[in-house]
Amino acid sequence: MFTQADKKNSRKQKLVSGARISYNDVPYPTRLNFYMSPPSLEISIEEFEQFALDRMQVLTTLLNAQVRNMTSEQLDKNVDAAIRKYMPMHKNTSGIPQNQLMDERRKDHVSHFILRLAYSRSQELRSWFLRAECALFRYRFEKEILSDQLEFLEQQNLSWKKVSDDDKSLLKEKLLPLIKPHNNTNLDGVTYFEVDFERVTGLVGRRQVYVQGGKAYVPLADQVVLVLDEFKERLAHALEVTGKILPRMEEDDRLMPVLNNINKQYLGREFTTSAIAGEIQAQDVDNLKVHMPLCMEHLHNELRREKHTRHGGRMQYGLFLKGIGLSLEQALIFWQMAFEKLTPDQFNKQYAYNIRHSYGMEGKRTDYTPFSCRHIIQNNAPGPGDHHGCPFRHFSAPNLRATLAAHHVDDFDTEDIMSLVQGRHFQIACTRYYEVTRARMLDIATENLKGGGINGGQGNTGMVASQELIEHPNQFFEQSYLLMQSKESSASIAKSGNGDFMDGQAQSTLQPTVKGQYTYKKSGVQTSSHSNLDMEL
């Protein structure tokens, strides 16, 4: 519990953009929020979906950075960039107008509740959302200034007893050794809370707190453990409640289409307007297999072996080839040559229409886009005799291990990839596969991937580990193709002795990292690709 003096100090008026305001007069006094009450305001359907997709970008960036074991500097750089772009949240001391601060925090509040609705439909979705929101809350809490942390904690009416100065004096000899740095000689300015030791078993196990009479004395520096536990407990309960009442909204034809598709949205490039390899010919496809992701390489190999593939495989592989530059004319040639057991008349009657349809030349004339990783992972799982899908998601463990071994992935990297697959981080597993196989192509040691390059790690040209998550098969292809092009160009330059003939624009075309751009899509619009989220489903 807080003393009257603490409450008085925490309620002091604070300066925001030159005007003094009382924390009791604004709905969002700090950037922290337990999201206990739903927002009461009206927003458009467009804002409803936009807010949700923007928050997804931030959550995904944070989770992917954590799973990939980035350094704290790399994580901060990636997450801060996503926050600035999609969901900025300025400090009270930033000097921006108060109404802008409130708008930012209102968007945060609204977007949380939208995603809470969208992710309460199943236990798997709830688990992902809970993990993501806890990660974001912790990140924000640790970045918040001390005064706003205390203000936030006071507002929550948490059942933690604040240790008085008199009690701290009595426990001084026990608490001092736990303070960092250890050369502190007093407890002045150190806030402690008394809680049941069962709530902080992790801190107890690491001997970071003093325990007496079943109570643990937790310093404010370790308060994030308590706060996060409280946040997680409340949100988990809220998600269970939301999941039970969500069926009542089934008849709402405005929101349900949006909610049902939010977690399926693909937010990156569509790969329809440009092809990095130019317009390719049917006979070029075999030579380009080296740049294909595992899913497309598998489809290609099975197509060559069986001289046929089923509808799911034709759609997945056909749209991928369309995205890398295979025109409709060349696609018809390619598939007719691949289905060599059929006569031209049989092929035209059974398959030509569907190929023209996928290029927008038949039926509703929808120009279909290549499937994203999210779409492949979540939709239309392969059955017996099918070869489409994601190997990291749909292959058995022995089959996947054998496939990795066939691609000369060593035991260490195989275990790394299999661990990611077991954790249901399928896209990150594919990203890791990309890194280790491209490193082998460039004869770079795997341990030098982070920041490694073909020019001794100098510059960006030839970068293998770009920290970019593979979220689309065509992205995998483009990055690999550009990587090999940059290697060949560098070799050619070295051989000729002329390293200055390329201008900046030409050099930029050889960058192996192809960054996706955020693409807003309204619900109901025909899309064949659905998300850059590694949802661990």
Automatic annotation (TrEMBL):
Q: Keyword check for Iron, yes or no.
A: yes
Q: Which residues bind [4Fe-4S] cluster?
A: 295, 373, 390, 430
GO CC entries: alpha DNA polymerase:primase complex; nuclear envelope
InterPro entries reported for this sequence: DNA_primase_C, DNA_primase_lsu_euk, DNA_primase_lsu_euk/arc
* Residue ranges of every copy of the DNA primase large subunit C-terminal domain listed in the record: 290-477
Statement: the UniProt record of this protein carries the keyword Hydrolase: no
Q: Which domain of life is it from?
A: Eukaryota
GO molecular function annotation: 4 iron, 4 sulfur cluster binding; DNA-directed RNA polymerase activity; metal ion binding; single-stranded DNA binding
Cofactor: binding comment = Binds 1 [4Fe-4S] cluster.
Q: One GO biological process from the UniProt record? A: double-strand break repair
Question: Could you say which cofactors this protein requires?
Answer: [4Fe-4S] cluster
Q: Which UniProt keywords apply?
A: 4Fe-4S, DNA replication, DNA-binding, Iron, Iron-sulfur, Metal-binding, Primosome
CDD domains per the UniProt record, alphabetical: PriL_PriS_Eukaryotic
Task: Tell me the function of this protein.
Answer: DNA primase is the polymerase that synthesizes small RNA primers for the Okazaki fragments made during discontinuous DNA replication.
Q: Which family does it belong to?
A: Belongs to the eukaryotic-type primase large subunit family.
**Name of the molecule in the record:** DNA primase large subunit
Source organism of the structure = Lobosporangium transversale
